[in-house]
Amino acid sequence: MRFVDEYRDPDLARRLADAVLARASRRWTVMEVCGGQTHAILASGLDALVRERVELLHGPGCPVCVTPLETLDRAQALVERPDVTLCSFGDMLRVPGSHGDLFGARARGGDVRVVYSPLDAARLAAREPARRVVFLAVGFETTAPAVAAAARWARKQGLANFQLLVSHVRVPPALEAIASAPDRRVDAFLAAGHVCTVMGTQEYEPIAARHRMPIVATGFEPADILQGLLQAVDQLERGAAEVEIQYRRAVRPEGNPAARALLEEVFEVADRPWRGIGTLPGGGLRLRGSYAAFDAERVFPEVTGAGAAESPDCRADAVLRGILRPPECPEFGRACTPDHPLGAPMVSAEGACAAYFAYRAPEPEEDPP
């Protein structure tokens, strides 16, 4: 099958969509895993191009969205300490925990700062030795190498005042959970290209074989997504269940050996809770014992054991598992908007709810006469 290298052809998306429709003999359901892919699909109307034969479901591929409430509550507990500076990426500040968000904690006097990389937080700790600087480390395997690099740099510098509140998650266990669910609706996955750039595709092969599901590592341009979809549909029509790479300009089966070695040095695989999915065996990463001095959960006892409950009005759990589309949530566009989000998928730039609000916003209700 030919791989697309040229994206300037204005008719390319239509031709690929027509190829998908021509290849599909029945209606298939395909889940794109990455939130960036979800936004591309909705912004470009790709779902409408193939709706006759393919239903696109949106998976849990938003790192902010799957960060559990417990982690946010632990971050809030740290901010309450007068000697702690909490650093994270900007979109984490608006994600609601069970006691508000980090913007609110900053408004109440907490030292919460936005940084552009984990290394920025480590350098801040080096400049301010009297402060305890904690970086809230979230995301998939894509962002974990940068966190690992910051931890290694901090250890070489002998920084005793730099810690990491780690909530990194791994994609393969989430796909395993979705594929093995009794109410599974998914026939094939479009795997997140950026994650596969780091980790490769070998971990997906047992999942594809065990559940008889094609998995295609796919990029983020509309042509990438449609070609990945064509590869998945072609496999489904042939009765195949293989791991393929559409995003060949960035992904190799073995991934990035240097990044994987760095992850192996700093982190180990651990059970990890996912917001909306639950605790997944091997679902995340934690710092190895050799990096225990940088583990905020070990250094600060008060960050452990936090209990939290989701808003009863938020259906993010069903959205993240592809069971419910955001507009099907009763609160979508009403009580839950980007200005007043009930859940993380409406906060994050990669969240499915935010994508639907941006590109498929409901018409405002008119006041009765």
Write the layout of secondary structure elements.
Elements: H1 12-23, E1 28-34, H2 35-44, H3 46-50, E2 54-61, H4 69-79, E3 84-88, H5 102-107, E4 111-114, H6 118-127, E5 132-139, H7 144-157, E6 162-168, H8 171-180, E7 188-192, H9 193-199, H10 205-211, E8 215-218, H11 222-238, E9 243-245, H12 257-266, E10 267-274, E11 278-287, H13 296-299, H14 316-320, H15 352-359
Parallel strand pairs: 1-2, 1-7, 3-4, 3-5, 5-6, 7-8, 8-9
Antiparallel strand pairs: 10-11
Helix pairs in contact: 1-11, 2-15, 6-7, 7-12
Overview of this protein structure:
The protein has 369 residues and is an alpha/beta fold. The protein has a single domain (24-359), classed as Rossmann fold. It is built from 15 helices and eleven strands. The chain has helices at 12-23, 35-44, 46-50, 69-79, 102-107, 118-127, 144-157, 171-180, 193-199, 205-211, 222-238, 257-266, 296-299, 316-320, 352-359, and strands at 28-34, 54-61, 84-88, 111-114, 132-139, 162-168, 188-192, 215-218, 243-245, 267-274, 278-287. The strands form three sheets. It has a five-stranded parallel β-sheet with strand order 2-1-7-8-9. A four-stranded parallel β-sheet has the order 4-3-5-6, with helices on both faces. A two-stranded antiparallel ribbon has the order 10-11. Helix 5 (102-107) links the parallel strand 3 and strand 4. Helix 2 (35-44) runs parallel beside helix 15. The chain is globular, with a radius of gyration of 21 Å. The N and C termini lie far apart (59 Å). Mean pLDDT is 89; it is low at 1-5.
The domain tally reads 1
Q: What is the string of helix and strand elements?
A: HEHHEHEHEHEHEHEHHEHEHEEHHH
The general outline is globular
Widest sheet, order of strands = 2-1-7-8-9
CATH architecture annotation: 3-Layer(aba) Sandwich
Per CATH, the superfamily is HypD, alpha/beta domain 2
Which structural class do you get from the secondary structure elements? alpha/beta
Tell me the number of strands: 11
The low-pLDDT segments are 1-5
CATH class value: Alpha Beta
Report the radius of gyration as a whole number of Å: 21 Å
What's the N-to-C terminus distance?
59 Å
Overall average pLDDT: 89
CATH topology: Rossmann fold
Give the biggest sheet. 5 strands, parallel
Per DSSP, the total helix count is: 15
The share of residues in helices is 25-40%
Instruction: Report the portion of residues in β strands.
Output: 15-25%
